[in-house]
């Protein structure tokens, strides 16, 4: 079974004053490895649809400012929209209670709540993970599709390196190149949407 994610994001201690929490997006993109903190999808598919989420929702923030970097998450629009104002404890210092709520994606324990099937679907591994799974709508098919496209792209890139070794197998080389060309064209179309 593949790991849910290969790296745990780490927020740098950024304290610069900004006008809007969205001004932190470039730094969050770096700290989150260009991946959604919640579902781990890479932003190469739709970077304009990546947003800045308040881990603790704005409506209950009293201790931290709305632009506090330590409370922000680089998030795909799907996860950000699904999460919205969900915060079952209604206490900014209590992220989860009775297996309901969230774990900060920068916590190393975050990934223990989820796994990936070899076909790309996200599964929950704990009761709290189950709650987050449904709250973030991690069951939506695009999570599987993006994961598979990312892996296929990586495999095609590796296979492309072998093309020079296929000179004595022209049929296989031609098929490989055709699949690669079709995939890259589709990939470019998807990114342009």
UniProtKB/TrEMBL annotation:
<dbReference type="InterPro" id="IPR003615">
    <property type="entry name" value="HNH_nuc"/>
</dbReference>
<dbReference type="GO" id="GO:0008270">
    <property type="term" value="F:zinc ion binding"/>
</dbReference>
<dbReference type="GO" id="GO:0003676">
    <property type="term" value="F:nucleic acid binding"/>
</dbReference>
<dbReference type="Pfam" id="PF01844">
    <property type="entry name" value="HNH"/>
</dbReference>
<protein>
    <submittedName>
        <fullName>TIGR02646 family protein</fullName>
    </submittedName>
</protein>
<dbReference type="GO" id="GO:0004519">
    <property type="term" value="F:endonuclease activity"/>
</dbReference>
<dbReference type="InterPro" id="IPR002711">
    <property type="entry name" value="HNH"/>
</dbReference>
<feature type="domain" description="HNH nuclease">
    <location>
        <begin position="27"/>
        <end position="81"/>
    </location>
</feature>
């Amino acid at each position: 079974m593949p790991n849910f994610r290969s790296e745990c994001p780490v927020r740098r201690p950024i304290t610069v004053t900004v006008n809007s929490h969205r001004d932190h997006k470039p730094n969050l993109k770096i700290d989150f490895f260009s991946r959604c903190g919640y579902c781990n999808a890479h932003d190469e598919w739709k970077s304009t649809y990546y947003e800045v989420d308040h881990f603790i929702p704005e409506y209950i923030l009293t201790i931290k400012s709305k632009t506090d970097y330590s409370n922000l998450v680089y998030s795909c629009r799907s996860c950000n929209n699904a999460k919205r104002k969900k915060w079952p404890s209604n206490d900014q210092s209590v992220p989860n209670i009775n297996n309901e709520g969230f774990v900060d994606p920068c916590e190393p324990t975050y990934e223990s709540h989820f796994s990936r099937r070899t076909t790309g679907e996200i599964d929950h591994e704990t009761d709290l993970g189950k709650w987050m799974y449904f709250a973030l709508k991690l069951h939506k098919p695009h999570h599987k599709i993006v994961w598979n496209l990312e892996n296929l792209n990586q495999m095609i890139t590796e296979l492309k390196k072998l093309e020079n070794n296929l000179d004595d197998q022209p049929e296989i080389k031609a098929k490989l190149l055709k699949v690669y060309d079709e995939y890259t064209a589709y990939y470019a179309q998807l990114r342009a949407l």
